[in-house]
Structures are given as structure tokens and as C-alpha cells.
Amino acid sequence: MKRYLFILSLVLMSYSACKQNVKSNLFDSSNPFASEFGDPRGLPPFDLIKAEHYRPAFLAGIEQHTAEVEAIANRSDAPTFENTVVALDESGRLLSRVASVFFAMTSAHTDTVLQAIETEMSPVLTEHNDNIYLNEKLFARIKAVYDDPASQSLTAEQKRLLEKYYKDFVRSGIALEASGKERLREINKELGLLNVAFGENLLAETNDFQLVIDKKEDLSGLPQSVIDVAGETAKAKGLDGKWVFTLSKPSWEPFLKYADNRELREKLYKAMYNRCNNGNSHDNKEIVQKTVNLRLERANLLGYKTHADYQLEETMAKTPENALRLLFDIWKHALPQAEKERDELQKLIDGEGGKFKLQSWDWQYYAEKLRQAKYALNEEELRPYFVLENVRNGAFEAANKLYGISFKEIDNVPVYQKDVKVFEASDSDGSYIGVIYLDYFPRPEKRNGAWMGNFTEQAVYQGKFVHPVVYNVGNFALPTSDAPSLLNLDQVETLFHEFGHALHGLLSKCNYAGISGTNVYRDFVELPSQINEHWALHPEVLKMYARHYQTGAVIPDLLIEKIKKTATFNQGFMTAELVAAAILDLKWHTVESPLTADVMAFENKVLNEIGLIPEIIVRYKSPYFSHIFDGGYSAGYYSYLWSEVLDADAFQAFEEKGIFDAKTAKSFRENILSKGASDEPMTLYRRFRGADPNPDYLLKNRGFIR
């Protein structure tokens, strides 16, 4: 999905860490992680970092973090917020430094060496995390502060940090008996390894398939830009004179949309949705079943009925019932619309003399035909106006007009891959904000999707403001020898979406890393990203950046009007596949007894029960649903729709006052973007909007109500 979010914040808590008796004698001053990065902005020295540096740096980081935690736990003085809670929040800087870089690389620039290190370190990191959160002496100090009546005088932000750590310990099993703690450690280790294996299988399966075309007639219907990229992909693979399409979305998606050869569309589409479900060494079905059952066992061990009950306790939704209620409220609008769209597409097929029933691999092809027939809009007409660099600059300029910030490219810093660009962000008064890395092109060593993460999280450390260093990763259209990277509408919105996450990280002004930036509830974190999409295709913003790559002409009003008219086109399909995936996620994680059924049989049962029509494939089938089995969104995929209620309502405030209204933008920056999790998310939202969000705006934006 375009809104793939892979936030590597507080990585030491996500991936956890180690055995006390592991030695780190290979770690010395020559290791780039041995001290704070030399660049005054804290930028990673990618020109110095080698694969062999990670393992000893991890082990040294674990050793150092363990010593810091033990020092806090064994203090003889009375526990206070500063000497216990803040000290814990500020601990583990070396470990965080190496983890933030390493896990960014295993997602965006991995290889077999890094994968081996990840597999080796996962249980070690998990054990370290458990050693911290099952440390009874440390928890006793935190509980003493939590129970102290004097804590009522703490600031709202301090109370949130204290509450976070107290709940983290409780939810990590600190109250369990010894046998329960031991079993919990075993479960956590196994889940960590399963997550790693799931992601590696998916990357391998994605890279293993290629559709090789050697007959020019099989390219019929494809735009020349798509053909050119396929030709260059083939050339890079040593297949000169042929064309190659892969399971990278910028490759398979336009093929499904434009290729006239129905048989080849079916072949490519089935390869995409059968990933990790082929009974080979990369099959993920057993991993899915084991993961679901272990998550249930852990939840039960901790006193929860299901994994979803455990996960959603610390969200805005609070319960799976509340999340499902929202999903089914949307579903009752989406499914009838999807059925109408299906019938319209079948009518188009019949009118052309087709003797077949619409299938899932036909939907995008005939939907594109229908869009052209109804609105005279061919998306390929738009691509020439969406040069990647111009779209990026449009996102920068919109942020400048909203929040007064500006971006300047810096080319004198090392990067981990030649296509990565680095920009320094400054505020309206010229003061330094932070740095953003942009990594936009697909390659075999990068996972599919788009995400944001942090190399350095904003905080105040020992009285000094720590400026954030963030990154956006995407898989957008590749440039060719004849043309720059030209994006489609979906990719334009994705770029703005991930940049919204980046703004959330960059504009944070919190005191504590544990609650700064994007370290917020999962169903609140998508608000800054999704609201930023609203500017992407707004007529006023399009005029700022959409220029033809050959002539430099600004996108004409006629095309802008067509974009506006098609805003809700095919929304039944897009909403149905998304909501179905969110429901599937919650159904996986509301099971109350160990799963014994076949994974695909379980999935099919869920989708049949909600009435998903067979012409639509759920957005993510379980064997490649990386959001929930590898990406931290388990029982949380509904978050995109929960946050959409917020973003649709929030953008209405801009619509009412003007999309660049200074007062509204200032309020959004101060109450949402800068606050992290320093207060309850609905409290922050009400401060911005003055009221609770109105869910009707989501339905209106998707064309379900007027």
C-alpha cells in the first residue's frame, strides 16, 4: 500500500537486546559507531560504516546500555522523575545509534551479510529488551515515582513519559511469576526471528520473479515511458532487446493498467498476489500461523483475551470492537459502490464483445478505460507534468507556505546509495531544524512500499536540544535515458504522504525522545502524513510544481479540472480492498484459541463472511501482509482509516480558512506536529480543531455521501 509506514523510532525497544556474557572486544575507536558521529548535525558516516562494524557495535551498545540500566536500578537515593525516568529515557544512546542505521539499511539497502547479522542479533536484542523490562529493581523505582503523590505536579509531558514507562513495564510482563517471565522471553525471541524471516522471504520472492517479453506485440497498450523502463530493466539484467517487468509496484502496476494482453496481465498479477504462497522455501504461511498463535499466547500470558485487545489498549481506538465498528461503518458504503463499479466494468467488457467475466487482473485495465471514456483523462497525460524532483520541490514549497520552513540540498555528506539526496531544513528565522534523506528509486536490495524513519530522534539531552535526522524511502518510477522519473497520481500522493511523516519528525519540540516526533499512538501517527496528501493535488499547489518535463509549461486548467472530477473515481474498489485488509488483520488478531486451520482457508473465510466480491483481491494477502507480520502494524492496519477521520476533518479547517491560512497552519504545527505524544492525542486534536472530528468528511472525500 502506498501509505506504508516503517518508523524505526526507539529501535532498541522494537528489536530489543542481549546476553550479559557476550563480549565486544572487537569494538574500538576505529568503529564509526564508537562515538557520537563526527558531523555536528549527527549525520551517519556512511563512507566509513562497513557491514563488519555492526555486530561489535551492537554488542558494545548492549553492554553499555545494560550498565546504564543497572546503575539506575541500583541507585541508593530515593527515586525521582529525573534520576529514574529521565535517566532511563536518555540511556542506550550507542545502541540506538547503531540500531537506527542498521535497521534502516536492512529495509532500504540490504544484502545477505546484513540479513545474516539481523537473524543473529534478533534474539540477542530481544533478550536485552526483556532484561530491561523484566528488571524488578528498576520497575520498583519507576513504580515509586508513579505512585508518589508529588508526581501530580509534573508537567503534562512529564506525566505522559512517566505513564509510558510504567505501562511499558506492566505490558512487558513485570508482574508475571518466574515461569511466566521465562515463557514470555521464549515467545519474544521466537516472534523476533519469525518477523525477520517473513521480511526476508518476501524480499526474495519479490525479486525472484520477472516477466520477460520478447515480442513487441505483447507490449500493445503500454505507454512508451513504461516500455522504455522495461527495456532498460532488461538491459541491466543482460537481456538486451527484451523487456522485463517485475513485482516492484512501479513495474507491475502500469502493466496491469495498460497492457492489452490479458493472459500476461493474469500471469503478472497472480505472481504478485501469490508471493510467499507457493509452497517453496520462501513460503510464509507457516510463519503466519506461528506468529498468530504466539501473539495470542503472549496476550493470554499478560492477561488479555486476544492480541488485538493487548495492542489496542494503547491506541485511540482502545478496543478491537471500536476499530471494527469504524471499519464496518465504512464497509457498508464501500461494498455497494464497489459492486456498482464492477457492473459498470462488466458492461464495458460486454460492449467490446468480450466473452469473459471480469477478473481481478482485469479491474485496473478496464477501470482505466472507463476513466478515459467518462472523463477523457488518460493518466499518462499527467505523467509528463509530475517530474519527481518537481513534485519533491512542490512538497517543500507547500511546507514553506504553511510552516515557514525551507530546504536546501547538501551534497558534501556521504550517503549509503548514490541516488540518495540529503536536505537541510531551516525555520523561517533561519534557525536550523534538522536533516532529511530522500531515497526514492526501487532496487533489488530495497523492500517494496514507502516509509519514514529516523537516524536521530528529536529530544533534549542533558539540557541540549538534539536536532532530528529523518529519512523518506520510496519506490517510484525510474528515470530512463530519454526522460526523468515521471510519477503517476498515486506516487505523487505517496511522496507527499511520507513527507508528512517527515514533517512530524522534523518539527517535533519535545523534551524526551520516548514521546517525541512520531512516537505516538499508531492510529494517530497517520494524521500528519495523510493530511499532507490533501495539498498534493490541490489546484493551487499543482500550479506551483506541475510543469511539463520537456516544455516547462504549467499543467493546464483543463487537466486540473479532470483530476478534480476523477477524485472519487474507483473509490469503491480502493476502499473495499483497504477495509478488507484492515478487517482481515483484526480477525487474525482477535482469535481466542490457537489457529489450526489452513492460513489461506482462514483468510478466505473472513473475506467471504464480509462479502468481498471475487473481482477484488484484498489489498494484502496474508503471506505478504508485511505491515502486520513484519512491520509493526499488527491489529493496527485500521489506523489508516481511523486517522483518515482525523485528517479529513482537520483539512476542513484549512478549506474553511484557506489552504495556506497562517493561523490554522501555526495551530496545526504547534498542537500536532511539534507535540509528539506529550499529551493525549484527542486532547491535542481538540486544541487544534476546537471539537471532535466529524467522520462524515471521510465519507464525503471518498464520494460515498454528498
Explain this structure.
This protein is α+β, with helices and mostly antiparallel strands and 706 residues long. Among the domains are: 11-133 and 135-171, Neurolysin, domain 3 (Orthogonal Bundle), CATH 1.10.1370.40; 210-262, no CATH class; 385-565, Neurolysin, domain 3 (Orthogonal Bundle), CATH 1.10.1370. Helices cover 55% and strands 6% of the residues. It is built from 28 helices and 9 strands. Strands 3-4-5-9-6 form a 5-stranded mixed β-sheet. It has a two-stranded antiparallel sheet with strand order 1-2. A hairpin with a 2-residue loop joins strand 7 and strand 8 (464-466). The longest helix is centred in the middle third of the chain and has 32 residues, at 320-351. The protein is globular, with a radius of gyration of 25 Å.
Give the topology, please:
Layout (H helix, E strand, L loop, with lengths): L10 H5 L35 H23 L7 H9 L3 H16 L3 H22 L2 H12 L8 H16 L6 H31 L1 E4 L10 H13 L6 E4 L2 H10 L3 H12 L11 H17 L5 H6 L7 H32 L8 H16 L3 H4 L5 H16 L2 E4 L11 E6 L5 E8 L11 E6 L2 E3 L2 E3 L2 E5 L15 H18 L15 H15 L2 H7 L11 H9 L5 H18 L10 H12 L15 H4 L9 H19 L4 H12 L7 H9 L6 H6 L5
Parallel strand pairs: 5-9
Antiparallel strand pairs: 1-2, 3-4, 4-5, 6-9, 7-8
Helix pairs in contact: 2-3, 2-4, 2-5, 2-6, 5-8, 6-7, 8-12, 14-15, 14-22, 17-18, 17-20, 18-19, 19-25, 22-23, 26-27
